[in-house]
Amino acid sequence: MTFVRVAEANEIPIGEMKHVEVEGTEILLANVGGKFFAVGDRCTHLSSLLSNGSLNNTIVTCPRHFASFDVTTGKAISGPSQRLPTYEVKVEGENVFVNL
Prior knowledge:
The chain is mainly β. Helices cover 0% and strands 50% of the residues. The protein is globular, with a radius of gyration of 12 Å. It starts with a strand and ends with a strand.
């Protein structure tokens, strides 16, 4: 496992999220109150991109069937879904890194 630079912190304002792809892995980066979290970016129900959905505090909602997940833990909150994979995040200066 190694940390890979995936974004600059200023690319993802507080309350926003961004899709990134690293080595074939699709990741949703979310900025919750100035802290960054990374989870898998595919809904575990029907594989829609969660980053095309909405983020309300720590909860991302799938745009397709409205399943929801906590971006801080990956836990499925509602819908016929399973936990999302989570990734460790670190910020150095303006650079955001994810541990794959």
